[in-house]
Write a structure and sequence with these properties.
The protein is an alpha/beta fold. The protein has a single domain, classed as 3-Layer(aba) Sandwich (Rossmann fold). Helix content is about 40%, strand content about 15%. The protein has nine helices and seven strands. A seven-stranded parallel sheet has the order 3-2-1-4-5-6-7, with helices on both faces. The chain is globular. The N terminus is likely disordered.
């Protein structure tokens, strides 16, 4: 785990205290010829499924987690058991110090071929009860945190790097009980589309995945009645799985999508058709 209370600005590996340099974190990786995928929030839900899918697709996976290391370590163990390589690092994407440390991780020297910005937080609060502090907290993680990671990783992206931002259908249609989350995802999607235009001439691509209902921690509190209600709302009569989203991300970073950039791809079983 990274410790950053003493170390905030302009980090360098040489300046790091030895206590921050654990062998399992600062290992260079076993397959230097394989491309590297960096996935924020890669230890759970969509991020975990994406980590596993991209490993099977031939990437070495560098995944981040924030509050709980065990799920991330389990993802790494599963990937390594399959003969591929992965590494989990602790990064609070709302903390510029921790993001700065990510930006000088030794795997950065290999070049980042794929960046998936998947981390996020969701506080259920209605639009008329939303406070500025709640909004700032969510924006700091979901939007500013994503931009911060991009800025840290940008110098290490390969010439034809692919980036997928995990947004939400709520970033387009809004939500009466998730105004801060919806606003953060709307900002994220618009930024990503702007970025796609800026980096396109360099050969890089940026796209947005906008999931609908997905069976992750966000829906973990559903009663049976609530889950049944969600399923009936969806024309395909089921909620999505993390693997559904991971498959779409795999497509967006693959060669079959090489002429797609700046797109918002809604993957929701027909629930929302903008």
């Amino acid at each position: 785990m990274y410790l950053v209370n003493e170390f905030r600005e302009n980090p360098t590996i040489q300046d790091m205290p030895a206590k921050w340099r654990f062998d399992d974190v600062w290992a260079i990786g076993t397959s230097m010829s394989r491309p590297v995928a960096l996935i924020t929030g890669g230890g759970r839900g969509i991020g975990a499924a994406t980590s596993k899918r991209l490993a099977k697709d031939g990437y070495d996976v560098l995944l981040t987690y924030n509050t709980s290391s065990k799920p991330a370590e389990m993802v790494v163990e599963e990937i390594r058991a399959g003969g591929d390589d992965a590494l989990a690092v602790k990064v609070d994407c709302s903390d510029t110090g921790e993001v700065g440390l990510l930006g000088i991780h030794p795997w950065m020297a290999r070049g980042i071929d794929v960046l998936v910005l998947n981390h996020g937080s969701y506080e259920r609060v209605s639009a008329n009860e939303l406070t500025l502090e709640m909004l700032r907290r969510t924006m700091m993680t979901n939007f500013e945190g994503a931009v911060s990671v991009w800025k840290a990783v940008q110098p290490h992206l390969t010439p034809e790097a692919r980036m997928v931002v995990v947004g939400s259908q709520l970033g387009t249609k809004g939500s009466p009980h998730g105004a801060d989350y919806s606003a953060s995802k709307a900002a994220l999607s618009t930024w990503a589309r702007s970025l796609a235009q800026a980096v396109g001439p360099e050969g890089k691509r940026v796209n947005v995945l906008a999931p609908g209902f997905v069976d992750t921690a966000i829906l973990a509190g559903d009663s049976k009645e609530k889950r049944d209600q969600r399923e009936q709302q969806v024309p395909l009569k089921r909620v999505g799985t993390p693997e559904d989203m991971a498959g779409t991300i795999s497509f967006l970073v693959g060669q079959d999508s090489k002429y797609i950039t700046g797109a918002i791809l809604h993957v929701n079983g027909g629930l929302y058709l903008p």
